[in-house]
Amino acid sequence: MMGEDKKNFLAIDIGGTFIKTALVDEQGLVTDRQEIENKFADKESFLEGLTQIIEQNVHQISGVGLSIPGVVDVKRQVIVSSARLAYLENVEFLDELAGKYQVPFVIENDGNCAALAEKRCGNLKGVANGAMIVLGTGLGAAVFVQDQLVHGAHFVAGEPSFMVLDDSATGRAKTAADLSVTEMVKQISLHLQLPEPYTGQAVFKQIQEGEPFAVGEFNHFCRHVATIIYNIQTILDLEQVVIGGGISRQPLLIEKINESLLEYFESDPLAHRTMTMPLVVAARLYNDANLVGAVVPLI
Q1: CATH level 2 (architecture), domain 9-110+289-298
Q2: What pLDDT is attached to residue 15?
Q3: Strand ordering across the sheet containing 279-282
Q4: Domain 123-283 top-level CATH class
Q5: pTM over 0.70
Q6: What is the DSSP code string of 118-181?
Q7: Stretch(es) of the chain classified as CATH 3.30.420.40
C-alpha cells in the first residue's frame, strides 16, 4: 500500500476479450497501460487472475476501480447480471479484497465508467444535465441529472438498446438492440465485397466517397441514434450529449447525427418552440475512458 501523499489508483477494465489495466492519478492521467487476454471461465480463475494484477501494483496504489460489462448494484457493489461474467453474478468479492490489501475497491458498469470519465475531465465536465451514448458492438448510455449519475431503481438506467424504434417490426427488430457499428461495418463490407478483415476505416472511405449503399446504411444508422437522443431529450431536457466509441472519431458521424436531430426538432412547430436541442459532440477520452472512469468514485 502506498502513502497518503500518493495519488495513483489501479484501474481494471474487464472486457469480453481483453482485460486492460493502468495507473490513473487524481487528474485523470493514465500511465502503465497493460493488456492481457481474458481467458477466465469461472469465478476461481478470474479471482486468481485479478489477485495477480493487484499484487503487481499494490505498493503504489491508493485504491482499485473495476469497469465491467453488465448491471452493477452500486449500493451492494456486486454484479447483478452480465452476459460475459455470469459466473460473478451476486458474488461479493470486493470486501474480501479490500480487507486483504487495505485499500478501497469499487465496481461500476463500463458505460457508466466512460461517462464518469467524461464528466470529470472530458466533454461532460461542467455539464449538469447531460448524457453519454457509446456506439460499438452494441449500444450503451449514461445520464447525469443535476450532476448526479442516474442508476435507476434497478440499476439499469441508460439501456437504450431496449428502446422501441419501430413498432411495426416484430420481436427484437422493434428495438435498438441491433443498432451496432460492428454490424453496419460488416453489412457494408459484405455488400461492397471489401477485403477482410472488415474495418471502419475502409467503410468510411466508401461513405466519404459517396458510395450509395454505404451512405444509405450510414444515414440510417445516424437517424436511429438521433431518434434515441430526441426521445431522451423529451424526458430529460439535457444540455449536451457526448458520443463515445471508436466511430466518434469520425466528424461526419457527429455532423450527420446533429443534422438528423435538427430535422426532428423542426418537424413539429410546437416541439421546435418548446424544446431545446442538446449539443451533440464527440467524446474526448476515447480508449482511456473506462479506465479513468473506473477510479473516479475513489478520487
Answers
A1: 2-Layer Sandwich (3.30)
A2: 82
A3: 148-149, 139-145, 130-135, 240-244, 279-282
A4: alpha beta
A5: yes
A6: HHHHSTTTT-SSEEEEEESSSEEEEEEETTEE---TTS----GGGSBS-TTS-GGGGBSTT--H
A7: 9-110+289-298, 123-283
